[in-house]
Amino acid sequence: MKTHLVAVLAFAFICTSCAHVMVWRSPGISGQVRLVDSKGNEVTGNLKGIVVNMINLSGELGETSASAITDATGSFGKSELSKGAYKIEVIKEGFKVGVLEVNLGSHERLSLQVELTRLSASKRKTIKMRKGREEINNPGQVNIQPPSM
């Protein structure tokens, strides 16, 4: 009985001293988006709904990329990503698209700070569509989608 208790205590000690090694963390990317004008002054307002695309550049064909949406404070995050090189695109109407390239390790969690600069009114264009003759305010980026099949 005494030998069994010593063995259990020794195992518990070994497990607690090695616990930091046994923790499994999946790779992830999180961060904060900040909006600024052309002079670098912070633009106030709601930061909710900014799109953050995380495109896996080094994954095999068929591996999915991920996206996240910011909360009201501009925070975003995505975990359980594959390791590798990623192109990060941060998109908000009326602002230049933010683009970063990062490398994500096997158990790494990256924290990014992204600044988006407001486009001047002269750089915005209105595009007229044939179907329905709708007007779209284009903030400087075009999202081309493949045709549906």
Radius of gyration: 23 Å
SS strand fraction:
35-45%
Give the helix/strand class: mainly beta
Largest sheet descriptor: 4 strands, antiparallel
Uncertain parts: 4-22
| Percent helix range | 10-25%
Number of strands: 9
Strand order of the largest sheet: 3-2-5-6
Provide the succession of SSEs. HHEEEEEEEEE
Shape estimate: elongated
The fold-level CATH name of one domain is Immunoglobulin-like
Mind telling me the CATH superfamily name of one domain? Immunoglobulins
- N/C terminus separation: 71 Å
Tally of helical runs: 2
- Just name the CATH architecture of one domain: Sandwich
CATH class of one domain: Mainly Beta
Mean pLDDT metric: 76
Verbal overview:
It is built from two helices and nine strands. It is mainly beta. The protein has a domain at 24-117: Immunoglobulins (Immunoglobulin-like, Sandwich), CATH 2.60.40. The protein has a four-stranded antiparallel β-sheet, with no helix packed on it. A three-stranded mixed β-sheet has the order 4-1-7, with no helix packed on it. It is elongated.
Short key terms for the protein model shown above:
149 residues; mainly beta; three-stranded mixed sheet; 9 strands; 37% strand
